[in-house]
Design brief:
Chain A: InterPro entries: DUF8026, TPR-like_helical_dom_sf. By secondary structure, chain A is mostly helical. Chain A is built from four helices and no strands. Chain B is built from 19 helices and no strands. In chain B, helix 7 (146-165) packs antiparallel against helix 15. The chains are: A mainly alpha, B mainly alpha.
């Protein structure tokens, strides 16, 4: 029995959608892990948020200053800021201008 | 309840790979091997794949991110995590519900692991390719031999206890980093063998043939929904527990969400490729459940070249899939009870495995009891646990808080605000729908009454237990104060 083009196409799509994405995620997360380990060996700490995530964290703290978790959020924001200021290499895609523009909460 | 301060520092996964394999090892179980391929073929093949993939990304990936993130954020087992969010009191009993569901799940899953162990041993003895072998009689003889079934259940729970006593790194991690890749390799080799057989293309056509009209059938979506939620183990406390052992700088959403949900499902796809080509190549009808693994496939092995080797690959892989799930499911209870009681990890492991062994005796004795419990807990107990965990995150902790404080912290991918309504509204609504659907579908049956007992009984038990336990400790200077974050954030 010869397989139709539709069956072969779906087989290819399924393999790409599942094994492709799973492999991509595995390789990406393992590479990130290696990079984090290398950075931590060099400088003892790394930035904990991406620029977009840190901006949203700040936005939330400013919008919810009385929230029970606002203080913890502030600490996490400032912890990332400290790491950015005190380290030479960043894990996330931070530019020097981005870092200079950040203010403590 | 004692303070965990009196105990040693909390363990962590030794490697990122160990965490990822623990997640996969927990989620890949019997359902991936004996259910997924058949459900896929019976529900439109490629059409089912599309529905399943969409539901994975809409529900399972965000849900697993939330559960792992709560574990990493609190660094506690289910009860401790619930207490951190809800504060002390009876509502922490929802954590007890998750714990009880896991114990119940393991009580009937352990005898099932015993079946796979039995078949794995016989595959190594080349029983299935011996002359005169009869698959149906062989299976019936196993199920009729209660002493053997109880013995297998005992061996399984004893082995799980032995692994868990060794701890997170030396026990669980050391097992899964070898067992999960071994399962994948076994299925890959079996796939290659199957695809090179004459007539294998019929199996491919059955599984991957596209019948687009199935996308318009509600049954297809219900089947895809069930597979997406139950196969990924969303909300059972497993992801929370595994996530609680993550290290400070570990990512949550990429590994705990995307990789776990898609990787776990990929093994189901691989199982379809491994199983159906050989089943169709020898002219057998596809089946689901125990019939597929223990009857149909077993009849295949004598018919194909190198069948004895393929049988070893399949059944040893199948055993590893179920055994790693059993280990990590039991770890949910061990982690929680070791934190919440005065017992150390070894004592907790022995006590819990003993209780599970005892509760599992009826299921080991009778496959009918196992089927009944599987139906009741699968359809109502597990969705209840999911509702408890996702409900606490969505409606008490608040998804926005968790997203900002844990999900996006050290994350490998950025998770945007779209995630919040999925956790707060979509996943809980789907779980309520599933429970209602199964109740409607089984209305008036013994299974439905069992489901009602689970839905009402477990929360009441949990509430009473934690009201008494937490009330008794209020004046005792316990470690955890209410975090006052109830009400959610959006």
């Amino acid at each position: 029995m010869a397989l139709t083009a539709e069956v072969l196409g779906m087989l290819a799509f399924t393999l790409a959608a599942f094994w492709g994405i799973a492999t991509w995620a595995l390789v990406r997360t393992m590479r990130q892990e290696s990079r984090k380990v290398a950075l931590l060996e060099q400088q003892d700490r790394i930035d904990t948020y991406s620029p977009k995530a840190l901006a949203q964290l700040r936005e939330w703290v400013e919008a919810n200053p009385e929230d029970p978790l606002a203080e913890e959020a502030r600490e996490r924001y400032n912890e990332c800021l400290d790491a950015l200021e005190e380290t030479d290499s960043q894990f996330y895609d931070w530019s020097e201008e981005d870092i200079q523009s950040l203010e403590r909460l | 309840m004692t303070s965990s301060e009196a105990k040693t520092a909390r363990a962590e996964w030794g490697t990122r790979f160990g965490f990822l394999m623990a997640m996969l090892g927990a989620m890949v179980g019997a359902g991936n091997i004996w259910r997924f391929p058949y459900v896929m073929g019976e529900n439109g093949g490629g059409a089912f794949v599309l529905a399943f993939l969409a539901l994975l990304f809409v529900l399972a990936v965000p849900g697993l991110m939330a559960e792992v993130a709560l574990g990493r954020y609190t660094k506690k087992g289910v009860i401790g995590a619930f207490r951190d969010v809800l504060g002390r009191g009876g509502l922490v009993g929802f954590g007890v519900v998750v714990l009880l569901v896991n114990v119940a799940l393991m009580s009937y899953y352990s005898p099932l692991i015993g079946w796979t162990l039995y078949y794995a041993v016989h595959s190594l003895l080349f029983t299935f390719t011996a002359s005169g072998f009869e698959a149906v009689e062989f299976m019936d003889a196993l199920f009729a031999n209660s002493a053997l079934m109880i013995g297998l259940h005992t061996v399984v729970m004893g082995s799980i206890a032995a692994v868990l006593i060794l701890g997170i790194r030396r026990g669980v991690e050391r097992l899964v980093v070898y067992a999960v890749p071994a399962l994948v390799i076994a299925l890959v080799i079996m796939t290659i063998r199957g695809l090179t057989l004459d007539g294998a293309t019929e199996g491919i056509a059955f599984t991957f043939g596209v019948q687009w009209e199935y996308l318009t059938y509600s049954d297809t979506w219900i089947a895809a929904l069930g597979q997406a939620l139950f196969s990924t183990g969303l909300g059972w406390g497993i992801a929370l527990t595994v996530g609680s052992y993550l290290r400070e700088y570990d990512d949550v959403p990429l590994g705990g969400g995307v990789f776990t949900a898609i990787g776990e499902s990929s093994i189901g796809i691989l199982a379809a490729l491994a199983i159906f080509p050989v089943v169709f190549a020898v002219g057998l009808e596809p089946d689901a459940g125990a019939g597929l693994a223990f009857v149909s496939l077993v009849q295949v092995f004598p018919e194909i070249p190198l069948g004895g080797i393929v049988a070893i690959l399949f059944f040893v892989g199948f055993f590893l899939a179920t055994f790693t799930s059993g280990v990590v499911i039991t770890e949910v209870g061990v982690t929680t009870l070791a934190e919440e009681t005065r017992f150390d990890r070894t004592q907790t492991t022995l006590g819990l495995c003993g209780v599970i062994w005892l509760l599992g005796l009826p299921s080991a004795y009778s496959a009918d009891i196992l089927d009944y419990l599987d139906f009741v807990f699968g359809n109502w107990g597990l969705p209840l646990a999911t509702l408890a965990i996702i409900g606490v995150i969505g409606w008490a902790m608040g998804p926005e808080r968790l997203r900002l404080l844990a999900v996006n912290r050290n994350a490998g991918i950025f998770v945007g605000r779209w995630w919040n309504p999925v956790i707060k509204y979509v996943v809980p609504a789907v779980m309520i729908f599933i429970m209602a659907y199964y109740a409607y579908d089984s209305f008036g049956t013994a299974e439905m009454y069992g489901g009602v007992a689970v839905l009402v009984g477990l929360p009441v038990i949990g509430y009473v237990v934690m009201s008494i336990a937490e009330g008794g400790e209020r004046g005792g200077g316990g470690e955890s104060e209410p975090t006052d974050v109830t009400g959610g954030d959006d």
